Amino acid sequence: MLTTASLQRAAYTWRPMRNAMVLGRRSILFCLAAAAAVAGCGGDGRTPLVVYSPHGRDLLTVVEQAYEEVRPDVDVRWLDMGSQEVYDRIRSERANPQADVWFGGPATILARGAAEGLLVPSEPSWAAALDPADRHPEGLYYTLYQTPTIIVYNRDAIGEDEAPADWDDLLDERWHDEVVIRDPLASGTMRTIFGKILADSVVETGSTEAGFDWLRRLDGQTREYVHSPAVLHEKLTRQEGVLTLWEMTDTLSLIDRGAPIAYRFPASGTAVIQDSVGVVAGSDSEDEAEAFVDWLGSPEALGLAVREAFRLPARGDLDAEALAPWVADVQSRLRRAEVDWRMIEENGAAWMAEWDRAVRGQGGE
């Protein structure tokens, strides 16, 4: 039954209302009912292409406009939500898929979707330019961007020499109640960071006990877990918490906008998220979805993502300096950490449930 509340939920997106309306594009009843609340549901003759993504308004708007210039016969409609929320939504819609493209999120989350039949094979022209580890063996998803995880701080509150140089430094008593963290249950980035800590614990000690102890101590340092990146950024800027664990692309965007934010690569090594893309199983526009994925990995689209949204391309055949000076700088300073992605993929959901049950809010006890 369509209710006012369900319409409001459908409309909750950074994009104008028509992007949210795409949730019912396969349902004539939904479209007609929604038309009573807004101007209408489009119908300009273009082929709708529905994209679920955690990439945020800035990048999604740029991608939409650029692709529609290349393909004026296609109407790109997107919904912006957290990485975990994208997975949950596609999974819940598997009997009646609403999305065509799963654009963004750690490969560990897309791997869960692939194992559950939520993605279908595709073969973009740029696949051969990726490292084999950045391609699903059956072509169900591909790494589009590389996203380093980093330590972020308010530079008005913390000097460069004082800022934590490694993950363990976040546990220093001087940072008590100064850490603010994106809620890991909704964030693929935080699931990756916490997953690496627990996977390292298993590799080094044979169990997750030391890893959960570390996360419990971090919880004791944490002032608040926030539900959205926007709130996280706002709190850091206002010094309602001056430290966090986050990812590089959002941070570079904040710095570019003048926010008093700085970052450090962890001295022990940086886990680099394989930010991936794939075609949703059951899409009504599978050919268009494949064409869109192919375009996303083109030099032109990647150059746009570099310039407009500070995305670090996964392709290894592009000139970093030609893309942007910051790309070459990051690649020269980045020290990649060894990560057991398979262990995180297999155990991540259970680990996060255990963290939520036995760690969240209990670190100060």
Describe the protein in words.
- The chain has 365 residues and is of the alpha/beta class.
- The protein has 3 domains: 1-43, no CATH class; 45-143 and 273-333, D-Maltodextrin-Binding Protein, domain 2, CATH 3.40.190.10; 147-271 and 337-358, Periplasmic binding protein-like II (D-Maltodextrin-Binding Protein, domain 2, 3-Layer(aba) Sandwich), CATH 3.40.190.10.
- The chain is built from 15 helices and 11 strands.
- It has helices spanning 4-11, 17-21, 28-35, 56-70, 83-92, 107-115, 188-205, 209-221, 229-237, 248-256, 286-296, 299-309, 320-323, 325-333, 341-358, and strands at residues 47-53, 74-80, 101-106, 119-120, 142-154, 179-182, 222-226, 243-247, 261-264, 272-280, 312-313.
- Strands 1, 2, 3, 4, 5, 8, 9, 10 and 11 form a 9-stranded mixed beta sheet that branches. Strands 6-7 form a two-stranded parallel sheet.
- Helix 4 links the parallel strand 1 and strand 2 (74-80).
- The longest helix is centred in the middle third of the chain and has 18 residues, at 188-205.
- Mean pLDDT is 89; it is low at 1-42.
Radius of gyration: 21 Å
Strand content: 15-25%
- What is the H/E order? HHHEHEHEHEEEHHEHEHEEHHEHHH
Q: Which class do the helix and strand fractions yield?
A: alpha/beta
Measure the end-to-end span.
46 Å
Measured as a percent range, the helix fraction is 40-55%
Number of domains: 3
CATH superfamily of the largest domain: Periplasmic binding protein-like II
Based on the coordinates given, report the CATH architecture of the largest domain.
Answer: 3-Layer(aba) Sandwich
Mass-distribution shape: globular
